[in-house]
Amino acid sequence: EAQVTQNPRYLITVTGKKLTVTCSQNMNHEYMSWYRQDPGLGLRQIYYSMNVEVTDKGDVPEGYKVSRKEKRNFPLILESPSPNQTSLYFCASSLEAAGANVLTFGAGSRLTVL
Amino acid sequence: AQSVTQPDIHITVSEGASLELRCNYSYGATPYLFWYVQSPGQGLQLLLKYFSGDTLVQGIKGFEAEFKRSQSSFNLRKPSVHWSDAAEYFCAVYSWGKLQFGAGTQVVVTP
Fold first, then answer.
1. Is A97 exposed, middle or buried (0-12, 13-18, 19+ CB in 10 A)?
2. Contact list, B94 vs chain A (CB under 8 Å)
3. For residue range A25-73, what is the model confidence (pLDDT) as tens digits?
4. With contacts defined as CB-CB under 8 Å, which chain B residues touch A99?
């Protein structure tokens, strides 16, 4: 089944403890992206990747890192999480390196930072 | 600045009634337009998209949307709502390499 898989789906952590949210897609998509969803703000883009080894900042990149060492994986790294990073995170991918293509979303990862 | 506005944060509609969700955008050129739906605890699913051509677009689950260039709008409609349509709906706009989402409209369906 074609899908975007995120892990973990739920995580509670403490301030400053590094964590990684993994994202993997099995559709050979070029483009991948991370969003965070907060009430009243919709989805805001954190980082995106046009292709392997190519990443760029979205609207809210502060406090996050990403890497794209292989096409299928696009992990989101929080080096030192803070409470304001408590949010619902979505990974998404699309066939080509342009948002005009339809995005396929993962099921989301709910992160709580205490 | 580029923006996507969904004026209605929350809409309550009776089952069987019609539904219209508003979306307005502010972009320099005609962008590509999308509507996504998010059911509780789920990721986002594409309902429909508009790139060019016929301004009335048909999507899945009986939804349609109309692009009106003069009003910079892309409103979503459904003639008769089902209880399973209760969800959050997001309008999204792609332009110049960037996909931007509106804040979302929560739809509640009452019996």
1. middle
2. 98-100
3. 999 999 999 999 998 888 999 999 988 988 999 889 999 999 999 999 9
4. 32, 94, 97-99
